[in-house]
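Sequence in, structure out. Go.
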Amino acid sequence: MRRIGLSVVLAVSLFGPPLTAVAQSLAKVPRVGYLSPVSAGAPGYSILRQSLRELGYVEGQNIAFQESFAEGYSDRMPALAAELVRQHVDVIVAASRPAIRAAKEATKAIPIVMITGDDPVRSGFVASLARPGGNVTGVSVMTPELGSKRLELLKEVVPRVTRLAVLWSPAPQRELRVTRAAADKLGLALKLMDVRNADDLARAFAVLEKERPDALTMLFDGLTSGYRGLVGDFAKKHKLPTVFGAREFAEAGGLMSYAPDIADGFHRAATYVDKILKGAKPGDLPIEQPTKFELVINLKTAKALGLTIPQSLLVRADKIIE
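Output:
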């Protein structure tokens, strides 16, 4: 019996895969769920994946991804979050307030890494920025005070602006308050238009075509970022100067943006995923806030609108699109 057993072991050793390879194949590959109210084409997801590759994660070898995109309909988020939980992902990356809310309601056990432009404490996602507690941590790009700066930049380029259309979702409440206060100070009348999905955006465009405001802005969050191309095209078609809270809007045809570096936020979110997969508890990881801010000016759009950007503003720009 011993000879038979020894021969089997030798056969496996000689002709079978190395024991270390067998062990690795049997090891559980961590699964990262990504939950977003927009489509797969939004830039944040690709930045996250690239950042994880730079940290040594190779899809199919030591990491797997499970994506859930609501395609612009945030009311789908609870069902998508519940599905990620059923699939037993190891971490959920939630990009936007609706995604974070849905993930937090779906699980108290799976770690959640958030990327949000909202106040995570005021929204009830975490106990504090320094000690989040619970299963949620991540990055907040909350800078509502920049809403005032954006309107000042708009007036600097287009002093004639008196009527400003504001597209927004319910998420950035604090930024809306700051924007309203700045508008009062600058003598701007605001036309607020609630955009929760693609249908709302189409209705907003129909209204704006009739009312013809002097300029347009869209408050940034994970939902509205997915509409940057549509909003940029609409603004150029109707000769509307624009200022936005994310560089991607200016790159998609907007006139200007002044904002935190959103790409850097997704890059930092990848480091949270890395730490959690290595054993860190989300409640012990402090929330990070933006440290990089950039002014982007699209000169191609300015030319199409017949606008001249003041030289004093051009020298302050971090990026100029020509």
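Check: The longest helix spans residues 262-277. The longest strand covers residues 31-36.
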